[in-house]
């Protein structure tokens, strides 16, 4: 929280009257990333539901009884709820400098040199604020622009971003453990052998016992995808810490 004179609480959402700079170049950048961000957000949502359904209805029943399935069902639902909830909160909570009041946008006496002027927005920015060309806004304590949330990560929504990474890491980590055990029951696992996966794919298309090979191939493929979607948020979470 910034301190301008006395401690003033920042407003979480931007004021309706605040307007972007309408820079043509920035509008082009924002338009070019709109589809990418929609796709990225859709991937997060779809993968969350996919791994929940896959593990709850295919993987877990082969390992546990009724109690274990029920427990993991509630646990998985709680994790998915928190992933989607924090994703929504992160996207809807803005950290725009323009959302501050006139008093908050006045540098304290003696600290004027720590503030900077944003030419596109034509306003003074508090320390650690940066202009985002994609959002076309100045962002308080801007960390980065995240395509998977469709917004800038800044002062007001950084906590939601951390929780999003946390629940994604926990959810995909648990799924990875169970999927690894489940995949072991269907043959050897070669995590760094793309040739093996390619040959398995060819056998799926051309070999005998096609249905069983297809099943094995997709089980291995899901494990690979699970490993990737675990590493990405986990690495980002560690970096944020």
TrEMBL record:
| Protein localization | Membrane
* InterPro entries, A to Z: Palmitoyltrfase_DHHC, PFA4/ZDH16/20/ERF2-like
Q: Which GO terms describe its molecular function?
A: protein-cysteine S-palmitoyltransferase activity
Indicate yes or no for the key word Methyltransferase.
no
Principal place of residence? membrane
Quote the PROSITE patterns the UniProt record gives. Answer: DHHC
Domain Palmitoyltransferase DHHC residues, every copy = 113-240
Q: Can you quote a single GO CC term? A: membrane
Question: How is the protein disposed in the membrane?
Answer: Multi-pass membrane protein
Give the E.C. number(s). Answer: 2.3.1.225
The portions of this protein that span the membrane are 34-59, 71-89, 160-181, 218-239
User: Catalytic activity, per the record?
Assistant: L-cysteinyl-[protein] + hexadecanoyl-CoA = S-hexadecanoyl-L-cysteinyl-[protein] + CoA
Report keywords, A-Z: Acyltransferase, Membrane, Transferase, Transmembrane, Transmembrane helix
PANTHER family reported in the protein's UniProt record = PALMITOYLTRANSFERASE ZDHHC16 (PTHR12246)
How does the record comment on the protein's domains? The DHHC domain is required for palmitoyltransferase activity.
Q: Which family does it belong to?
A: Belongs to the DHHC palmitoyltransferase family.
Q: What is this protein called?
A: Palmitoyltransferase
């Amino acid at each position: 929280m910034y301190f301008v004179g006395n401690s003033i609480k920042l407003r979480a959402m931007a004021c309706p009257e605040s307007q972007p700079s309408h820079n043509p170049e920035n509008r082009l950048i924002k338009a070019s990333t709109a589809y990418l961000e929609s796709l990225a957000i859709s991937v997060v949502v779809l993968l969350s539901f996919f791994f929940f359904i896959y593990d709850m209805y295919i993987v877990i029943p082969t390992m546990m009884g009724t109690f274990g399935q029920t427990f993991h069902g509630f646990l998985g639902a709680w994790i998915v709820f928190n992933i989607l909830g924090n994703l929504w909160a992160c996207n809807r909570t803005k950290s725009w400098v323009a959302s501050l009041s006139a008093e908050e946008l006045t540098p304290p006496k003696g600290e004027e040199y720590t503030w900077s002027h944003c030419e596109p927005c034509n306003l003074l920015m508090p320390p650690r604020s940066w202009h985002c060309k994609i959002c076309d806004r100045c962002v308080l304590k801007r960390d980065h622009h995240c395509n998977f949330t469709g917004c800038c990560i800044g002062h007001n929504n950084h906590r939601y971003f951390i929780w999003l990474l946390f629940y994604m890491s926990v959810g995909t980590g648990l799924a990875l453990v169970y999927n690894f055990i489940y995949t072991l029951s269907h043959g050897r696992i070669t995590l760094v052998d793309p040739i093996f996966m390619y040959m398995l794919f060819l056998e799926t298309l051309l070999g005998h016992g096609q249905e069983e090979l297809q099943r094995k191939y997709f089980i291995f493929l899901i494990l690979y995808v699970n490993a990737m979607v675990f590493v990405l948020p986990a690495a980002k979470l560690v970096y944020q810490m």
